[in-house]
Design goal:
The complex is a heterodimer of chains A (213) and B (477). Chain A has 213 residues and is an alpha/beta fold. Chain A has two domains: 82 residues, Methionine synthase domain (Methyltransferase, Methionine Synthase (B12-binding Domains), Chain A, domain 1), CATH 1.10.1240; 121 residues, Rossmann fold. Helices cover 58% and strands 11% of the residues of chain A. In chain A, strands 2-1-3-4-5 form a five-stranded parallel beta sheet, with helices on both faces. In chain A, strand 3, helix 7 and strand 4 form a beta-alpha-beta unit. In chain A, helix 2 packs parallel to helix 4 and helix 6 packs across helix 7. In chain B, strands 6-9-10-11-12-14-17-18 form an eight-stranded parallel barrel, surrounded by seven helices. Chain B has a four-stranded mixed beta sheet with strand order 8-7-20-19. A three-stranded antiparallel beta sheet of chain B has the order 1-3-2. In chain B, strand 9, helix 5 and strand 10 form a beta-alpha-beta unit. The longest helix of chain B is centred in the middle third of the chain and has 22 residues. Chain B contains 18 helices and 20 strands. The radius of gyration of chain B is 23 Å and the shape is globular. In chain B, helix 3 crosses helix 9 and helix 6 packs parallel to helix 8. Chain B starts with 9 loop residues before the first helix and ends with a helix. Classes of the chains: A alpha/beta (213), B alpha/beta (477). At the A-B interface, helix 4 of A face helix 16 of B.
């Protein structure tokens, strides 16, 4: 079994999506506790990938592929994990989106990978996400954090609009909002009433950790 | 293809060569010394002994070019650092020869001493693009006659790379050759491995310095490579056009080539240059000027035309401290040489028209050198780099972060990874580090390198002998 866990860890570190999914399936077939598979296998792999990235050893492609391998395994194990009341380790539930009118996907994808690497359950809604869609998903899955990315000075306004809409729907105090993107600043973040800003993926995780406390 | 550049057309190169031949033949070159006169006369030159001037024919130049080797290796104390000449890409000398050292902490200069040379040698050892250590400063705490010898010994003890200096007096030759022998074990190995070479400056206009000439002629007996280094300054020691200054510098270089090939046929020669212009208000020799840079690029092309390895002055500045002017001028005087395909840029670490050494500047210059090297690599359009399948797989929108080729190819040297001096992080990451500038980061690394000390000290026997030779030089020279 230890060999299987080791393969799981390695599949995530290597960013081998298909292999990770296959190993997750194998674990279920062999009747291995999915919580164990996550904690001893995949999660250890993803936190190792996160560590390698922080230390400058990994580049973005390695990090993003590791996160996707992790997600592929999670999808297979998810049903079983949900049946188990104890659940796997989870730092928090996060929705990420690049705001409406803005197609810049990469920065947010990197933050998502890094948060995944640090044990967050990340729901990446993609780019150019309509504000209503952010609210709809938020109402549905009840995240701890919403992360909103904007790369353009013309679209950063949407970060404010989403926050205002959350307030109108009385959802604002149930969720923390993080903002980021090239034109965004700490000053802008406080002006629009967000809970925090970071200018890189590693700080985004630290910010999320502090918001979760 | 690789990125290349040229400043002279093939007709201009020919014109410069012909102009230089005309100067050699008609105006002549002053070689102050009987021995040189004898050798040149025997080699076919018309000589005027009263004027100590020799008139050299094109035929003599052609013969000298035939006997000068086109390929050789500048050996290093540790053979892993041997440098093939000519080399596949441009590397860097430690620049010489200054008189003072800029202190990071006080921001002021002090007279260079033996300790500074040792420190510079240790830092140079750590610099990947650095291949040839020229003594960066003359140690003012050593009696004048022994400075070269003490500097040489100090460099040998602290750095594993090829060492280059000047022999200013014939009496120095025995000392440096004894040192090389102490390291390599035998005179035969000294000849074979060539861990020591000299820079030989001609004296503009159209002359040679007696003592340095005789010392260098003596040194050729040991097959030590000689870097020929004319340095006329346009408007003062050279004529007031870049073109004519190049013609004259080239004539001086060819005159040295002829002399040393006649003295010892087969002597390995390196074609070099340190031409410049002057500040016409003060007369100060200007190194960091665009006119200096194009002249040096032109001389690189002349060296390549003659088929000789090249080491040419570059990475130069007239700025007094590391900073904007220094970086601007050093890049301005590095890149053209690299584009011309120079073997070694001479060199890193000095400020103030090569008068002041800065250990921090050495590391900043390393980054400049690495950037130039990357630029020169150009765009690789080989089949390995055809990623059309990836483009098709990603299609419209989406991204390439997850393509296997992205992971693989970003690890190759097509993509430049800067050292710790260049900041490529975000604003917050930068402020969290205390908003460091290049200079302070360079200082941090200098401190770390010096804390570690020499990478590979000499064995105790060789070190003892070298110290004895240094002591003897201090007592006798």
């Amino acid at each position: 079994m230890e060999k299987l866990f080791e393969d799981m860890r390695q599949s995530v570190i290597d960013g081998e999506e298909d292999l990770a999914a296959q190993l997750a399936g194998q674990a279920l077939e062999e009747g291995i506790d999915p919580v164990m598979a996550m904690d001893e296998g995949f999660l250890k792999g993803i936190s190792e990938a996160g560590r390698l990235y922080e230390e400058g050893e990994f580049f973005l492609p390695e990090l993003v592929c590791a996160a996707d391998a992790m997600k592929a395994a999670l999808e297979i194990l998810d049903v079983e994990l949900k049946k188990n009341s104890a659940g796997a380790k989870n730092s928090g539930k996060v929705i990420l989106a690049t705001v409406q009118g803005d197609v810049h996907d990469i920065g947010k994808t990197i933050v998502g990978a890094m948060m995944t690497a640090n044990g967050y359950e990340v729901h990446d809604l993609g780019a150019d996400v309509p504000n209503e869609e952010v609210l709809r998903v938020a109402a549905e899955i009840q995240p701890d954090i919403i992360g909103l990315s904007a790369l353009l000075t013309t679209t950063m306004e949407e970060q404010k609009n989403v926050i205002d809409m959350l307030s109108e729907k009385n959802m604002r105090d149930k969720v923390k909002v993080m903002v980021g993107g090239a034109p965004v600043s700490r000053e802008w973040s406080s002006r629009i009433g967000a809970d925090g800003y970071s200018d890189n993926a590693m700080d985004a995780v630290r910010l999320a950790d502090s918001l979760m406390q | 293809m690789l990125m290349t550049g040229q400043v002279l057309s093939s007709e201009e190169i020919k014109k410069i060569h012909e102009g230089s031949i005309r100067l050699l033949r008609e105006t002549g070159i002053k070689f102050p010394g009987e021995r040189a006169m004898d050798i040149l006369e025997a080699g076919g030159a018309r000589v005027d002994r009263d004027k100590e001037t020799a008139y050299i024919s094109e035929d003599m130049v052609k013969k000298a070019l035939k006997t000068a080797p086109k390929k050789f290796t500048l050996g290093a104390r540790n053979s892993a650092f041997d440098l093939e000449m000519p080399s596949a890409s441009s590397s860097y000398n430690l620049d010489g020869t200054g008189v003072s050292v800029l202190e990071y902490d006080s921001g002021s200069k002090h007279a260079a001493g033996v300790k500074d040379i040792a420190d510079a040698a240790v830092v140079f050892d750590d610099i990947d693009i650095g291949t040839v250590l020229w003594l960066p400063a003359a140690a003012q705490d050593v009696p004048g006659g022994a400075r070269g010898i003490v500097g040489t010994g100090t460099a040998f003890m602290n750095c594993r790379k090829h060492f280059q200096d000047e022999v200013k007096n014939i009496r120095e030759v025995r000392y440096v050759m004894e040192m090389a022998k102490a390291i390599l074990g035998s005179e035969e190995e000294v000849r074979r491995r060539k861990i020591y070479s000299v820079t030989y400056c001609t004296v503009a206009p159209l002359s040679h310095d007696r003592e340095m000439m005789e010392a260098t002629m003596e040194l050729t007996k040991y097959e030590a490579p000689v870097l020929i280094y004319p340095m006329p300054a346009c408007g003062t020691t050279g004529p007031a056009s870049l073109y004519s200054n190049i013609v004259m510098a080239n004539a001086e270089a060819l005159s040295a080539l002829v002399l040393f090939q006649l003295t010892t046929p087969g002597t390995p020669l390196i074609f070099g240059a340190a031409l410049g212009i002057v500040n016409m208000r003060s007369g100060i020799f200007l190194e960091g000027a665009p006119e200096t840079s194009v002249q040096l690029m032109a001389m690189t092309e002349m060296g390549k035309y003659y088929g000789l390895p090249t080491i040419v002055a570059g990475c130069l500045t007239d700025a007094k401290v590391p900073g904007m002017q220094a970086v601007l001028e050093k890049f301005l005087t590095s890149m053209p040489l690299v584009l011309a395909g120079v073997d070694v840029v001479q060199g890193i670490g000095l400020l103030e028209s090569s008068m002041t050494l800065s250990l921090e500047q050495m590391l900043i210059d390393e980054e400049i050198g690495r950037l130039c090297r990357r630029l020169a690599q150009g765009v690789d359009a080989s089949p390995d780099k055809e990623l059309f399948d990836d483009i098709a797989a990603v299609g419209q929108e989406g991204h390439f972060l997850k393509q296997k080729s992205t992971r693989k190819l970003f690890r190759t040297d097509e993509f430049y990874l800067p050292g710790s001096l260049i900041d490529r992080g975000s604003y917050d990451e930068w402020t969290n580090m205390g908003s460091p500038d290049m200079f302070s980061k360079a200082h941090e690394r200098v401190s770390a390198i010096l804390k570690e000390g020499p990478k590979e000290p000499l064995d105790s026997g060789a070190e003892k002998t070298i110290k004895e030779i240094m002591d003897e030089a201090v007592a006798k020279l």
